[in-house]
Design a protein that fits this description.
- This protein is an alpha/beta fold and 285 residues long.
- The chain has a single domain, classed as Alpha/Beta hydrolase fold, catalytic domain (Rossmann fold), CATH 3.40.50.
- Helix content is 39%, strand content 18%.
- It has helices at residues 79-93, 105-116, 135-159, 163-173, 184-192, 197-205, 207-210, 237-246, 264-267, 269-281, and strands at 2-5, 8-15, 19-22, 25-28, 31-35, 58-62, 99-103, 123-127, 224-229, 252-257.
- The strands form two sheets. It has an eight-stranded mixed β-sheet with strand order 1-2-6-5-7-8-9-10, sandwiched between helices. It has a two-stranded antiparallel ribbon with strand order 3-4.
- A hairpin with a 2-residue loop joins β3 and β4 (25-28).
- α3 runs antiparallel to α4.
C-alpha cells in the first residue's frame, strides 16, 4: 500500500486490526510504527520478529523515502524529510498519537521526527542507534574482532563507499556487528530485502558523517526507551547513553543488553520482547 507525500510515494504495510472484538464492544489497539535501518534496505529486515506485537498493537511497517518500495528524489533523502514523512504518513492514514520504534537508521529518523513534532508521538523506542557517530570507537571494535583488514575496510567504507567498498563491508564487517554464529532469520532478512545502495552511499558519504541530533533531544515530550547491545560496534553503548542523558524530565529509559550486538532483538529475542512489552504496556514514563 502507498501514500503520496511531498513528492514521494511511501510504501507501508499493516499487520493486525485496529479494532478487535471484545465481547459487546470493539476495542481499539494503539498503532506501533516500525522503522527499518540502513538506509538502503526495506522493512522486511525487521520481520517476522515484530509481527508478534500485533496481539496488542496495530503494526505499520514503512519503507523510508527512497528505500525499498518507496520513491523520492535524492534531494529529499535527508533526516529532516525522513522525519517529516513519519508525521505526513500519520496524517494521511489518520493515525493519532502513534508509538514509534526505530532501529539503527530508523532510530535516527525517529529522533528527527520527535524533534520536529514533539507532541505527536505517544511513545518512542530508539534501538541500536546514535545521535552522532563515534567512528574511532567503531574502528577499534571492528579491528579487535576482525583484525587490521576489518578496520581498513571500515575506514574505506565510511570515507569512500564505492560499490566494492560496500560489498567488502557487508562481507567482512557486517558479520562483526553481532556475536555468535550467524542467525538464520537475520540472514534470510538481508537476503529478501530490497537493496538501494545509492541511498546508502548518499547518506553515509553525506549527512551521516556529520550529523548531530543531540540538539533535538531536550525537546522530547514523550516516554522514550533507548536500547543498546553491549557488543554493538557501529552504535556502541556510548551512543545510547548519550541519547538517554539528553532526554528531559525522566522521560528516557536506557537498557543495555551486554550479550547483544546491533539490534538487540536479533541476539536476545526473549529479553528484547520482555523489555519492549513492559515499556509499551506501561501507563507512565
Amino acid at each position: 500500500m502507498f501514500v503520496e507525500v511531498e513528492g514521494a510515494r511511501l510504501f507501508f504495510d499493516v499487520v493486525g486490526a485496529k479494532f478487535i472484538l471484545d465481547g459487546p464492544t470493539m476495542r481499539e489497539k494503539p498503532t506501533l510504527i516500525v522503522m527499518h535501518g540502513g538506509p538502503g534496505f526495506d522493512h522486511s529486515t525487521l520481520r517476522p520478529f515484530f509481527d508478534r506485537f500485533s496481539d496488542t498493537h496495530q503494526l505499520i511497517y514503512i519503507d523510508h523515502r527512497g528505500n525499498g518500495r518507496s520513491t523520492g528524489v535524492p534531494q529529499s533523502w535527508n533526516l529532516v524529510q525522513w522525519g517529516r514523512d513519519v508525521k505526513l504518513l500519520c496524517d494521511a492514514l489518520g493515525i493519532d498519537k502513534p508509538r514509534v520504534y526505530g532501529n539503527s537508521f530508523g532510530g535516527m529518523v525517529a529522533m528527527s521526527y520527535a524533534a520536529q513534532f514533539p507532541s505527536h508521538p505517544e511513545k518512542l523506542v530508539l534501538s541500536s542507534t546514535a545521535a552522532r557517530l563515534h567512528l574511532e570507537t567503531t574502528y577499534r571494535l571492528l579491528e579487535e574482532r576482525g583484525g587490521p583488514e576489518a578496520r581498513q575496510i571500515a575506514v574505506k567504507f565510511w570515507t569512500q563507499t564505492d560499490a566494492q567498498a560496500m560489498d567488502d563491508y557487508v562481507r567482512v564487517c557486517l558479520p562483526l556487528y553481532n556475536p555468535g554464529p550467524p542467525n538464520p532469520q537475520v540472514a534470510e532478512g538481508w537476503a529478501r530485502a530490497i537493496r538501494r545502495p545509492e541511498v546508502s552511499a548518499h547518506f553515509i558519504l553525506g549527512e551521516m558523517r556529520t550529523m548531530d541530533l543531540r540538539h533535538g533531544l531536550p525537546g522530547f515530550r514523550c516516554p522514550t526507551l533507548v536500547l543498546a547491545g553491549g557488543y554493538d560496534p557501529i552504535t556502541p553503548p556510548v551512543c545510547s547513553t548519550e541519547i538517554a542523558e539528553l532526554i528531559p524530565g525522566g522521560l528516557g529509559q536506557l537498557h543495555i543488553l551486554k550479550e547483544a550486538g546491533h539490534g538487540i532483538h536479533r541476539d536476545c529475542p526473549q529479553e528484547a520482547e520482555h523489555i519492549l512489552r513492559s515499556f509499551l504496556e506501561s501507563s507512565g514514563s
